[in-house]
Structures
1.
Amino acid sequence: TNSYSKFALAAQAAGITSSQTRGIFEATSKAIVATGISSDAGGRAFLALEQALSKGTLQAEEVKKQFAGNLPSGFTMFAQAAYRAGQTANASIGTFMKTMKKGTIDSKKTILELGKVMEENFGKAFEGASDNVERNINRMGNTWDIFLLKLAEFGLMDAVNTAVKGITAELQSLTLQLTEMIDTVEGRMIV
């Protein structure tokens, strides 16, 4: 996936530091894993954060439909984050909705707090929910995105592209060999 790359670009444009970006991304990833939502739903949650950062203020479209519509407790967490960021008078959903309709909730301040809220809510649950194949593959994809972003920062993408092509060719060759072995074993079992 390239969720991290896109999110990192939006966060950087909004003036969020690399370490803050990584923290928000990791907290969101933990929330996704802990709740067991699909990687597609997780991608839509990240898209909501990207779009909110790009707009500068929170809008119901991103918060309600994309983020909270895909991540359980998303709306409540956003309301808590807006309050903690000093954007609303209290953490109630009603106050959050009214203030959001006015278009005055700063997305950068709120999303910075949202990362902390998600870490508090899902950090521990993530530990217990995170050890299965699908989640480990998603985690690997997220780590790969972070790795590519770092390589791009140092101008090393051409070297990585060459290495990835080689690795892909080797995996294809191994897959073919494995398939042939399985076919051979299955052929012997039938006889």
Note: The first helix runs from residue 3 to 13.
2.
Amino acid sequence: VNIMLNFNVNIPHAYHVLKLTENLFEQLKPLHGIKEDVRKMIRAAAMLHDVGIKLQFGNHHEHSFYIILNSGLLGIEQKELLMSAFIALNHRTNKKIHISEEYMGLLQNEERHLIDQLSLFLQISEYLDRSMDGVVKDVNCVIMEKEVQLNVLTTGHSVFDNMIINECGKKFKRVFNKTLTINNKVIISRR
């Protein structure tokens, strides 16, 4: 939390993105088949994915990478920290990434694939909370033969489902060989 406070991270947004990422990870287990414990990597990447915004908004994902990598987080192994940094780095789409090849060389192909999968969940979660107001109350994933449908329950307004499909759909198809679709139901909350 100290790193988040030092870099003025939007803490409610970070927690909401973490919750959504963990939710997607759990519901899509039949699809990704990850058996190892990746909770620390998901937590570090989700909570710190926007930490680089204080340095530069446009390329904050690259700054987040270096901050996470050099954070010295307790309770997480160095390799997990490197992978967390890559997961956070890859939460942005269609952005040129200028990270030294020396870091990529430290990863095996299986680890790169794991980063691809986990960063995709983070990326979708980031887009689900794009407005940073926590409107997504629930996500239910339906895995079908050729597609995965995200049934999203929001309050107040809808999510940017077209943007999510445009930004994450190709990567989803590449990583899981399924089409990503979104069904958004908006409910009005009474106060």
Note: The radius of gyration is 16 Å.
3.
Amino acid sequence: GRRILLSLLKKGVPYEVLYLDFIQKSLIEVGRLWEMGELPIWKEHYISEISLENMALIKRRTSKDEDESRPILTLAPGSEQHRIGLKMISDLLEARGQNVIYLGNQLPTENIIQAIEDTKPYAIVLSVTIPLHIDSSKLLIGVLKQRFGTKCPTIIIGGRAFAQMENVAMETGADKYCQTIDEIMSVLKRI
């Protein structure tokens, strides 16, 4: 798999194509197989780690200089374990010139508040993969909106957990719901 990836990179296949058409689609299939009981958890974890390694390889080969502009925080709320989609979005936002601070997952709310106070982001991107964690996102958004009031960064939410939900932004309290990197970029341009 890695030789194919390196070959595609050498041929100039765009970063986003590798992420979205190869890595993302394979992870969706892995998740489907796991849900159906056709793939053991250890293989799902192994494939996830290989995907993260491949993403790091792609990023190293396409990295840009540090950006000093106002940042965006990206994180998965509560005890959400799934972070690869969030990492993909973070890397793609960086590739499009955004200053991204990737916080990952399982960060206590007090630390998220401190990160906002210290870095003063203009937006926060939350990713939720498992519907069980939607309530965690609602709680976090409520705390942030109460704590920062009108100075709260724009909160963008997305992830596979919302596939069956209508009015996601209204239901969660987020400012915007986005399903793709293009939708996120469109929102960011309007802030």
Note: The first helix runs from residue 2 to 10.
